[in-house]
Design goal:
The complex is a heterodimer. Chain A is 78% helix and 0% strand. Chain A contains seven helices and no strands. Chain B starts with a helix and ends with a helix. The mean pLDDT of chain B is 91. The chains are: A mainly alpha, B mainly alpha. At the A-B interface, helix 4, helix 5, helix 6 and helix 7 of A face helix 5, helix 6, helix 8 and helix 9 of B.
């Protein structure tokens, strides 16, 4: 039963991932943003585990476990602590209004599907249809980083981009070799910790975590 | 595992851990020098082995050393050692001025060693995946160093550096995934498919469409770290706001290492595509970098910012040379990488002391270096002449080779290159000249400045400009053949 509908289920999860990317793009509240990020991680975990079960690629279970530990538990926990200590729960302002952001997002999705077409037509995986979605969610995270002015949403955008990349790896090649996935995960974790420290430093220095204060260095 | 490779990587890693515990002590700077010197000795031993035995793979093919990367290993370890020598008095003065705390010194020394480790890992690893991980690690270690002073400007620079390079390098990860995708079809799944030696062996069978898309992502990713225009925005800020030894290693080493990663990917892509796709992209980005950086040079007020733009210009020149390809251009590119690395770090050393003396990095306020501290003044003057490509320094030789090759292979590009180099000359020389001569009321530094590294570097650049030992020329030629 599951084996029969498995590939469709992977596609369904991929669609959920894309929807969550859009939801993050439009979410104004920072707390909900973190929850959406955790949800995206959870969908990624489910998709990876399902692909592992469907294809019998055992190393993907490791990748799924890594996603669960890092993207669903550790990073959202760090982010929750961060905003509690910073005491910021305010609404996030976007630099471009949300309907325009959505429109740009849709264009990016079309672009991503076009880009993925030649690659996914060559892929031999059961999950090849998801490659376009993975690329789209990478580009949407990009857009989110561009349209947000506060430091924490930018960090979440950065981490969500990593989610999209992991999904691309799962979809196209059943995941990267385990050593590499561990290395990437370690870099992401250390990066998130350093960014956390930075957000504090920035707040201490400027009494705000708005990156629009960080615009002094430029060519005059 | 070959003992030289093991030592080369273990020494800075051990140094990083040791200095994380002891880095704030009085003797930590000396310890930093000791670790860097040991790393250099390991690198020298590795060079001797490669020269004797030819390319080697090591530890189940996880490491690969040939004439292309062994030369960069030697250069990296050498400049890391001289920069450690320079940073000993420099950072002591900064601490006496109250710009860095004891905790900051510990962070600085520890991260300095870990940064060396990350760069050497990028250079020696055989796996494109590990290369990505190590490159990201190099970013993470230097981000903390750029923010060391905890000032408004340094935090801003570090944030920009982190976000831009983090996002950039994420694109390189996508590129690496795509390379793996192409390789998996031929080599099968598993970590072996990402090993460069394996990829190189089957490069002509790799799927061309996938490889061309992969190369674009890799170029954007690693190109951000090389500082190619228009991905260069982090570079001047990070160079200007970080401590000077960090500017020296960023400019002299990190940019080279990122370009090395790009070149390795180019070799594979060229093999797969059989049309000059990668070369055209590299030439385009290289030429844009040279031209844009030259135009920005004349607008600078901050001395470190100005030399940061000069780094963009020179990396653009090297990228252009690799893009042209062929034995002469690749030879010139490699030579220029070496010359730029040695000269630019020497310049940053003198600039650091000059800025300390004047108490500012603003070029209008730095005057009369020759009067109060002749060695710093002459060091800056000679370094500037060298980087501007005046004979008899080695930069002249490499720039001349790149230009003459451009005239014969890509004649349309030659006028742009010549014009840019001319503008760069006028901008930099016009600003350095009054800083070196002119009147001043500034006082001498409390500690004697470290100038041995400056003059060692300049002497090497001069020597290579006048006479290149045949074995060294041969070595460059072998490395250039690998790039193609």
């Amino acid at each position: 039963m599951l084996a029969k509908y498995g590939p469709q289920l992977v596609n369904l999860l991929a669609a959920a991932l894309l929807l969550l990317s859009f939801a993050m793009l439009t979410q104004r509240r920072i707390l909900s943003l973190i929850n959406l990020f955790a949800a995206q991680g959870f969908v990624l975990f489910l998709a990876t585990a399902l692909v592992a079960w469907l294809t019998g690629q055992h190393h993907l279970y490791g990748s799924a476990a890594l996603t669960l530990a890092l993207k669903v538990i550790a990073l959202p926990w760090i982010l929750h602590r961060l905003i509690r200590r910073l005491n910021v729960k305010w609404d996030v302002e976007t630099l471009i209004n949300i309907p325009s952001t959505m429109l740009v997002g849709i264009v990016l999705v079309i672009l991503a599907f076009n880009l993925a077409l030649p690659i996914s037509s060559l892929a031999g995986t059961v999950t090849k249809a998801t490659l376009g979605i993975a690329l789209a969610s990478v580009l949407l995270s990009f857009l989110m980083m561009i349209t947000r002015s506060k430091a924490v949403p930018q960090v979440i955008g950065f981490l969500s981009m990593e989610n999209g990349l992991f999904f691309a790896a799962t979809g196209a090649v059943y995941g990267m070799p385990m050593v590499i996935e561990f290395g990437v995960a370690l870099d992401v974790l250390v990066g998130a910790l350093i960014l956390g420290i930075f957000v504090f430093e920035i707040r201490e220095r400027f009494d705000s975590v708005d990156t629009r204060h960080l615009e002094r260095l430029k060519e005059r | 595992m070959i003992p030289e490779v093991a030592l080369l990587l273990a020494t800075p890693l051990l140094g990083g851990i040791t200095l994380a515990l002891l880095g704030h002590r009085e003797r930590a700077a000396e310890l930093n020098v000791v670790f860097s010197t040991l790393t250099f000795l390991a690198a020298a031993a590795l060079v001797a082995r490669i020269v004797a035995d030819g390319p080697v793979t090591d530890a189940g093919e996880q490491f690969f050393v040939d004439s292309l990367n062994v030369f960069l290993v030697a250069l990296t370890a050498f400049v890391a050692m001289t920069t450690a020598l320079f940073s000993r008095p420099y950072m002591r003065i900064e601490r006496d001025h109250g710009r860095v705390t004891d905790g900051g010194m510990r962070l600085y020394h520890s991260m300095y060693q870990l940064f060396s480790f990350a760069m050497l890992l990028v250079l020696t690893t055989n796996s494109l995946g590990v290369m990505w991980v190590a490159m990201e690690a190099a970013t993470l270690t230097t981000v903390m160093l750029v923010a060391l002073y905890r000032t408004h400007a340094s935090l801003e620079a570090a944030w920009k550096y982190f976000i831009l390079c983090g996002v950039g390098i994420a694109q390189a990860l996508l590129g690496t995934i795509l390379v793996y995708f192409a390789a998996e079809k031929i080599l099968g799944a598993g970590a072996g498919s990402l090993l460069w030696t394996h990829l190189d062996a089957v490069k002509s069978q790799l799927e061309p469409t996938v490889m061309s898309i992969a190369f674009v992502f890799l170029l954007i990713g690693y190109g951000t770290k090389v500082g190619l225009v228009p991905l260069h925005n982090w570079l001047p800020d990070a160079h200007a706001e970080g401590p000077t030894p960090v500017s020296a290693v960023l400019s002299g080493l990190l940019l080279n290492v990122a370009l090395y990663a790009l070149v390795r990917c180019k070799v594979i892509t060229d093999g797969a595509l059989e049309r000059p796709f990668a070369s055209a992209l590299l030439m385009g980005f290289g030429l844009t970098s040279v031209a844009v950086a030259a135009l920005f040079l004349s607008r600078q007020r901050d001395i470190k910012r100005m030399f940061a733009y000069s780094s963009i210009e020179h990396m653009g020149l090297v990228t252009f040379a690799f893009g042209m390809g062929g034995p002469v251009a690749s030879f010139a590119g490699l030579l220029h990488m070496t010359m730029h690395s040695l000269t630019k770090s020497a310049i940053f050393f003198t600039v650091g002391h000059a800025a300390q003396k004047a108490g500012t990095q603003n070029m209008d306020d730095i005057r009369g270096l020759v009067r109060i501290n002749p060695t710093v003044g002459w060091g800056l003057m000679l370094g500037t002449l060298a980087i501007l490509g005046m004979p008899p320094f080695g930069v002249f030789a490499s720039e001349f080779l790149i230009l003459t090759t451009a005239i014969s292979l890509q004649p349309w590009a030659a006028p742009i290159l010549l014009l840019s180099l001319g503008i760069a000359f006028a901008s930099i020389f016009g600003k350095v000249q009054p800083m070196v001569y002119g009147d001043t009321v500034a006082k001498r530094l409390p500690h004697p400045p470290a100038l041995i590294p400056v003059f060692t570097h300049l002497a090497l650049v001069l020597m290579l400009g006048l006479y290149m030992p045949p074995y060294l020329a041969n070595w460059y030629r072998m490395a250039a053949r690998l790039i193609g």
